[in-house]
Specification:
The protein is an alpha/beta fold. It is 35% helix and 13% strand.
C-alpha cells in the first residue's frame, strides 16, 4: 500500500534571502553555534571511543559528513510526523515542509503522518519503517530530510535504536543516490522531556556513525521559554504543535541549517592554511 505525497514547487522568489525581521537575531546566533551542532566536518581524526563494559559492543566511530549539494529545483523528500504534515497551521500547506520549497528554491515532496514515529504507528498511516517500505522508488529524490519523532517518547527506549537503524537502512537502499539529512525532534513542551532529549542524542549518534548530517533543534535551542508561545499553539486545536507563525519560523531555521551544510565543508576545504590550521 502506498501513502499520498504532496508536492510543492518553489514560488517566484527564492527564500535563500531570509527576510523575516523577527528571526534575524535568532538566525545570527544560530550561525555562530552551527559548527558545534551540525556535526563535525572539521575533525581530522576520529574521537577515541569511551571505555565499554566487557562483552558489550562499542558504538561505531563517527564519520565526517560529505558536502551537501542542494541544486536549484532539486527534489527534496520531507518525511516525518505531524510537524511535517503541517498540523496546527491554518492550512497544512503552510507547514514548514511546504515552505521549504520557497526557502530553498526546491521542489518538496511532503510525507507527514500525524502521530507516527520509528516505533509508533500514526493516525493516518503506520510507523516510519512501514511507510518507508511503501515509498515509490520512482520518486528519485535528490535530498531526503527525515524529521522527528517525539511520538516515540512513550515507547522509548525498548527497540528504538534497532527500529531507527532498520528504517534508515531501508531508506538508503530505496534511494541510494539521495543525500540524507536527519532533523531531530523539537520540543512540544518545556522543559524538554527526558525521553525526547534521549531520542535526540540517539539519533545524533546514529547519524554521525553513518556520516549523515544531523540537525538538533534541542541542542540549538530553537524553542525556548522566550519564544515558546510564539512558536507553539497550546490551544485545544493546536495541541502543542507549531502555529502558522511557528511553522514559518521552523522553515527558516531548517533552511538556514541546510545552507550551512552546503557552505561549511567547501569553506574549510578551500581555506588558506597558516601553520597547518585552516583559516575560514
Amino acid at each position: 500500500m502506498t501513502y499520498p505525497l504532496h508536492m510543492h514547487a518553489p514560488g517566484r522568489f527564492r527564500a535563500r534571502r531570509f527576510g523575516l525581521p523577527l528571526l534575524a537575531a535568532a538566525l545570527a546566533v544560530a550561525a555562530v553555534c552551527a559548527v558545534a551542532v551540525l556535526r563535525p566536518w572539521g575533525a581530522t581524526e576520529p574521537v577515541a571511543p569511551a571505555a565499554v563494559a566487557e562483552g558489550s559492543v562499542p558504538a561505531p566511530a563517527a564519520a565526517a559528513p560529505a558536502p551537501l549539494v542542494v541544486a536549484d529545483g532539486a527534489r527534496v523528500l520531507v518525511f516525518g510526523d505531524s510537524w511535517v504534515y503541517g498540523s496546527a497551521a491554518t492550512v497544512p500547506t503552510l507547514g514548514f515542509a511546504y515552505l521549504l520549497a520557497d526557502r530553498l528554491g526546491v521542489e518538496t515532496l511532503v510525507d507527514g503522518v500525524r502521530g507516527s514515529g520509528y516505533l509508533k504507528p500514526g493516525i493516518d498511516g503506520p510507523s516510519y519503517g512501514e511507510r518507508i517500505a511503501a515509498l515509490d522508488p520512482a520518486l528519485d529524490p535528490d535530498v531526503i530530510l527525515v524529521e522527528g519523532s517525539i511520538n516515540d517518547r512513550r515507547l522509548y527506549p525498548d527497540g528504538y535504536r534497532d527500529a531507527v537503524t532498520a528504517a534508515w537502512d531501508a531508506l538508503q537502499a530505496r534511494y541510494p543516490d539521495a543525500d540524507i539529512v536527519i532533523l531531530g525532534p523539537a520540543p512540544q513542551v518545556l522543559p524538554v522531556e527526558d525521553a525526547t532529549r534521549s531520542i535526540d542524542e540517539d539519533l545524533s549518534d546514529l547519524a554521525a556513525a553513518r556520516g549523515w548530517w544531523y540537525i538538533s533543534p534541542i541542542a540549538e535551542d530553537w524553542i525556548t521559554e522566550a519564544n515558546y508561545l510564539g512558536v507553539i499553539d497550546t490551544g485545544p486545536i493546536g495541541r502543542d504543535h507549531p502555529s502558522t507563525d511557528g511553522h514559518a519560523y521552523l522553515a527558516e531555521r531548517v533552511a538556514a541549517a541546510i545552507e550551512r551544510m552546503e557552505r561549511q565543508p567547501a569553506v574549510v576545504a578551500d581555506a588558506p592554511h597558516e601553520g597547518g590550521a585552516a583559516v575560514p
